[in-house]
Amino acid sequence: MKGLTCANCARALEEQIQSLPYGEGATLSYNSGKLRVNERVNLEKVRAILATDGAYMVEDEQSQRKRNPLLYLVGTSIFLFVMAFLLERFTGNEVVSIYIIATALSGYKTFIKGLKNIVRFRFNMDTLMTIALIGAFGIGEWKEATVVAILFGINEYLEGLGMERARRSLDMLLKQVPKEAIVICNGQTRVVSIDSLQVGDVVLVRPGEKIPSDGVVIQGKSSVNEAAITGESMPIEKETGMSVYGGSVNNEGMLHVQITKQYKDSSLSKILHLVQEAQETKTPLELFIQRFAKYYTPFIMVVALFVMTIPPLSFGVPWHDALYQGLAVLIVGCPCALILSSPIALLAGMARNAKKGVLVKGGVHLETLGRVRTIAFDKTGTITKGKPHVTDVIAYIGENELLRIAASLESASSHPLAQAIVQKAKQHDISYKQPEQMETRTGSGIEGKIDGKRYRIGNERMFDQQDLSEQIQKDAEKLKSEGKTIVFLADEQHVLGLFGIADEVREESKEVMKQLHRIGIRRTVMLTGDHEKTAQQVAKQVGVTDVFAQLVPEQKVEKIKQLMKDNIVAMVGDGMNDAPALAHAHVGIAMGKGTDSAIETADVVLMQDHLGKLPEAIAIARRVNRTIRLNIAVALGLKAMALLLTIPGWLTLWIAILSDMGATIFVSVLSLLILWEKRTR
Predict the structure, then answer these.
(1) 360-384+505-615 adopts what CATH topology?
(2) List of residues 6+ apart from 666 with CB closer than 8 A
(3) Which of 112, 389, 452, 510 has the greatest number of C-beta atoms within 10 Å?
């Protein structure tokens, strides 16, 4: 849908469409510009209803361009008004006919809609403007009536322009959708639609092309731009075995990608779905403003009636002057700016966050995010990477030799602790080989031969107390006190060394906590099922204010409920066990590579799969809330100031329309400034 001029108009059109046969249940969203109707409804009648407000369907855009849009009509009206004004100055005669033509060009749609509304006793801004125009012509104020029509036309145009600009920022994501893919099958290539891609298909992605769906690189090496998905501006190097997002751009090399998700389940498809859902939702504030406007307009008409009748009847004010003042009150009372104070700002905020790789699933969640004062974090996979790594190597023989033996034994195991030791050896460029006669001791470790000599690696349960000297026990206790998991390596007689292993803290976690506290987040809380010592160690390292350990999912929910008694609470998590807590918090925030259940449950998704953009997302949400409050204050303040001018009789039609138009332009521009981002080198 395009050409919608205002939220009130969209609601009126929706009601008319709903009155058609099979039209019940039709929805027309001003925020997203989307119309949903039953397939059996008469589309020609729908088009006719839309046309009464100058709106049209996107498929009709070509034909719409051939018609005269509002901007050209208003431009012609301005030209005629200036010509009439100059003729009047030079000839001394009022050129009424030209003023009427100019008014008709700018205001005929408003006038027709307003007349229909009067007949139906429906009161909105079109009704106000129609009564004002009729009244102005009735008392001979031709010039003022023309200016009212022209400025109201400009107002409508700018209102539609602001909303369209905010929508376009979100719709830019749609351009990231690839249309086709090159599938490799039996050495042959063929072009297929991305909708027909199946899991397991191998696609060829050439330089400059978009990756069609989520997958894994099985051949080739290249840098990939994932900005459309994660918001990261720097390309990321991809090689065999690494995952890639659909919609990201291959920069220079040839990649063979095995598809792991059909397009409909891909990250990009989910992003687009979330964005479309977000545009459809309305915040409590938006709903309140719309309800307020519904009663506010009749109230203004009653006030105008009093202004027109009480002064002449009670104070002897001339009827002409009272009618003039009453008409000005009607124009001042137009609720355009008030209705616009929220939707443009919310769409701009969601668009700005989407560009940063932070998806907010609706204006209501953005509004709540801006009011968050306490944030609870899951530990594993959120504050930490969820991947064990070796933090300490205590060697009683040469360290390289210790790593060589340990990596050789662990190379046959897929256990995360074993892989951490193998990775440590790789980091030191230490070569290792497969063990001989390997035996697994369930729950304790591995035994095997390396170069004909038997070794053991595992936890304390593999060793008798007499095997552990006083120094070894002291070293082990130190690692335990730091919350680390200990792996022992021994030959048949002696313990050769210890490994301290812990979940690796994300590089950005400490800085993120500092930024959150700096922007006014009062409490940062870590909730984890891990042991107390491990949790305290991580909490101390990253700087959270509170930590609760050894929690099962139900206990996490209870902690969230307790925190919610004092503040607006956000919960950040990535796993299936976090989903209940995400659902209960005021705002649930999921990591981009978290489980599907966490992402589906959450209200906000961090597509970068790290916390780096969280402080900025909250700052943007707060700016949106501040902007909306300022918009409402300005919209109502300007109207109140203009209405006060009726007391001394200073309110004119010129002042009335300029105050209304000024408020509308102000709220539109201020809301769109949310999209603006200062560029730094």
Answers:
(1) Rossmann fold (3.40.50)
(2) 337, 631, 634
(3) 389
